[in-house]
Amino acid sequence: MECDKCGREAVMHAAYSGLHLCKTHLCVSVEKRVRRRIREDGLLSAAATPDDPETWVVGLSGGKDSVVLTHILAETFGKDPRIDLVALSIHEGIEGYRDASLDASEELTRELDIRHEVVTYAEEFGLRMDQVVEDDPEGMAPCAYCGVFRRDILERYAADLGADKLLTGHNLDDEAQTALMNFFSGDVKQMAKHFDASLGPFPDRAETDRFVPRAKPLRDVPEKEVALYAHLMDLPAHITECPHASEAYRGEIQQLLLEMEESHPGTRHSILSGYEELAELAALRHRENGDDDSEFGECDRCGAPTARDICRKCYLVEAVTEA
Ligand code: SF4
Is 103 part of a structural domain of the chain? Predict the structure, then answer.
């Protein structure tokens, strides 16, 4: 099959657009979609100047998504004096898994010449995920613990590093799956949080939010194309799956979406664009009702914003370390 842009050999066919693309045009297309998303989300504030640059912290796991995002950001903004890029990696303490992906992250940041910070669960919380899985004091799936710990580190370190934005490498499949999971559980509040946390007009929100605003510039690109980009560009991405991966429900949704996409190309794009509109409406309603401000106090242990006396992270850390 030939590339629809230049006639060279195609490396992929995107059923949702009908296009066959060669290596060069696939890579150009992925980069264009990321840059367009950054523009449309208003990620780069007009107030950023070479004398007063913005700091963007990128969550870098070493997997294909975060590696591709970090690579494109560094290629686009690496020499832009209005932006300081910092990569932040987290070591959960998973034997035979995270060391290799951290090596990939170190290689990438060295090649791109960007600052790289590494934080460990062991130093932060005095625990390792392998131990959490073994003790499991709350009878939960490993990812339920790990997600809480990771979110805490990302938010705290983004703030400590002076981040204006926290960027993560969620792709189109991730986001369409999350959207469907929230639809299926009827969780409007979660939709509102999704909008507040990752979408929408940044300039208005940055001043009022308690958390560093999040962005997901890779969310227009399907997972398969992200993987192909990493492979074609020979990026040092680590592809082994975590041995504790346990999100069974997400797996079911993933399978459902793949089947829908096969018979109705473009399903993931439609889900995400509809979801973003609904999430915005949910966020507006949430704010009009004053729900967001009334919910948060400070955690008695660590001072993090929480609706309880002790935040979820401190509760889980204590449960694990006292088990
Ligand atoms: Fe943590 Fe689950 Fe991701 Fe493994 S798959 S790193 S346990 S969130």
Answer: yes
> What is the arrangement of strands in the sheet containing 83-91, beginning at the earlier edge strand?
115-120, 83-91, 54-59, 165-167, 214-215
Measured in Å, residue 3 CA sits from the centre of ligand 1 at 38
What separation in Å is there between the alpha carbon of 245 and the centre of ligand 1?
5
CA angle at 120 for the pair 118 and 121, rounded to the nearest 5°: 155
**What are 145-200's pLDDT values in tens digits?**
999 999 999 999 999 999 999 999 999 999 999 999 988 998 877 777 766 555 44
Is-contact 207 24, C-beta < 8 A?
A: no
Residue 94, domain extent: 47-321
Tell me the pTM: 0.92
If one counts the domains in the chain, the total is 1
Residue 132 belongs to some domain of the structure: yes
Testing ligand 1's pocket by substitution, the residue of 91, 143, 174, 254 carrying the most ligand atoms inside 8 A of its CB is: 143
- Nearest C-alpha to atom 2 of ligand 1 is from which residue? 143
- The CATH code of the domain that includes 260 is 3.40.50.620
Residue 246 lies in a domain: yes
Taking the centre of ligand 1 as the mean of its atom positions, its distance from the CA of residue 315, in whole angstroms, is 19
**Alpha carbon of 88 to those of 168, 169, 291: distances in Å?**
10, 12, 32
Is there a domain that residue 66 lies in?
Answer: yes
